[in-house]
Amino acid sequence: MALSFxxxxxxxxxxxxxxxxxxxxxxxxxxxxxxxSASGVxxxxxxxxxxxxxxxxxxxHPQVRSTDPDEKxxxxxxxxxxxxxxxxxxxxxxxxxxxxxxxxxAALMRVEVTPVARGSAQVPIALFGMLERDETRLRTIxxxxxxxxxxxxxxxxxxxxxxxxPMARVFSPRLIAAQEELLHAIRAARELEQEGIGVVRExxxxxxxxxxxxxxxxxLDAAQVAALERREQVEDHVTVPAPVSGVVLERMVxxxxxxxxxxxxxxxxxxxxxxxxxxxxxxxxxWLKAGQPVRxxxxxxxxxxxxxxxxxxxPVLDPRKRTAQVRVEVPNPDGRLKPGMFVRGVVxxxxxxxxxxxxxxxxxxxxxxxxxxxxxxxxxxxxxxxxRPTFEARQVELGARAGDWYVVRAGLSEGELVVSQGAFxxxxxxxxxxxxxxxxxxGGAAPGHAHGxxxxxxxxxxxxxxxxxxxxxxxxxxxxDVGPAPESFQREIGRLVTAQFALVQALADDDPEAxxxxxxxxxxxxxxxxxxxxxxxxxxxRWNALARQMHAGLDGVARAGELEPxxxxxxxxxxxxxxxAASFGxxxxxxxxxxxxxxxxxxDGFWLQPREEIANPYYGEAMLRCxxxxxxxxxxxxxxxxx
Length: 643
Known about the structure:
Blueprint: H1 2-19, H2 24-27, H3 32-38, H4 44-47, E1 56-57, E2 81-82, E3 98-100, H5 103-108, E4 112-115, E5 117-119, E6 122-133, E7 138-142, E8 147-152, E9 160-161, E10 166-171, H6 173-191, H7 198-217, H8 222-231, E11 237-241, E12 246-251, E13 258-259, E14 264-269, E15 273-281, E16 293-298, E17 306-313, E18 323-331, E19 342-350, E20 362-366, E21 371-373, E22 376-382, E23 390-395, E24 397-402, E25 405-410, E26 417-421, H9 423-432, H10 452-473, H11 476-482, H12 487-508, H13 512-527, H14 537-559, H15 563-584, E27 592-600, E28 603-609, E29 628-634
């Protein structure tokens, strides 16, 4: 009798753990739906024996079905648990995942709804860079005539000058000869004014005009030529003025130097308009176009903002940083901004720019509303007019993400109430009840929660066990112990690795809700791995140990409500996954890179990602590019995998 009670005790404990996943059943006491949650699964004690028609499954491998409550899972060897019947899953007769709760239950679950709104999606794009001089506003003061520099009015750099201000005096014999030629021509014209043949007078007049043009070509303006004619005295020096207002960047000559025609004397820059050379990641280029307003801030003037606009977007990417240069023109009439200052910019872009096919007025939902799994996006919509809060799952087609919002292309109507906070809790409750949900649209047992001693062992293993597994997984002797894995098993490992890419991206995006959903999706892929194809007890034991560790980490990510505990749990999962990929191999994936961050709790943290560009899941936006690719596990087509 004691032995029989012990066999029944494990399923009872497992059911209690599953139904208490989010504390919903305990808190729903007194509600109609509490009875559903509390009795959604019968134990072997309730159904008697297999003769009562009860069906049992493994929580880690829900595809397993048996009518014998004493049978073990043929894949992992764990005890089986009862599958809830249709009567026990109230409301399971609908094809759509639907959950009806009392108002008190909805409050305890902290469910918040937001109406689907129609508006213009705005995406804030952060940019960073440095101020530079406007290349179109650079000027060079050159010598128009050969001669000797006898005086410099500005003899050091950094001086601000005004247009027309004297800059240098040049002594030039050629200038003297040209002035004398003009004065002689003028005197001759006067002598022939009263007398002389008309043809001669016209020739003399043309000579005067030619002499004036020659002086203008030598750098004298019309006013200087007129002054020469009035005083009728040769000026042996010519004054070189500043063509524009600006700052002297460079002095090219010294007093006493001889210069040829065209030799540079000064270089000036007009700083009334500056260029901000900013960098933007290639993933954000689609939001930018020329003419967009930009708001700039500088450390030199905290609290002040400067306006500019996008003038040019570099058509070529930096292949190392995967960024493009964006040039912003910034007015600087008071000269407060200086070339070389670091600045930050923000462009608030609409989802219609740069060819993105979104309507000017689009349907928008909060970014926290959809549960994303692979190519599917699911939201929970509160049904209007229901006696109790009732939430129905709806598959939607999403457009671009615009900051804290998603554009909805299909699946929702304006004014419908979508769950913006608590969608994961609703989905988890449906999974506990064995109802259709995001992860299991067909319904049935909840995605795996390692049970009994197996879960306890995995949770206590911690990072040390995962680190040990990772450390030894790559050694040849360890791989030899498990033997070669069948190709079908390697394909399932490949699907598992591909599924966890969404989890890596969610953590890198600092999105805890998306991380929860991705953890469940990855857990579902983990449960689909069939270890019965492995040859040898050592291979199956090793896989079961790594699978328990992976499941414990994914379960921790799904249960955590904040990023920091999610990232700690992810590390244990990632270490075990890396060890599994190294031990058994994987096929059927795209490129896979093993990346490392040296600053994870004072040690190296590893993860698998599909791109060479680092997207750090342990720090997110705070240090998104911290780390490097330690090894190429699966190279892109045409390349070889190399460490």
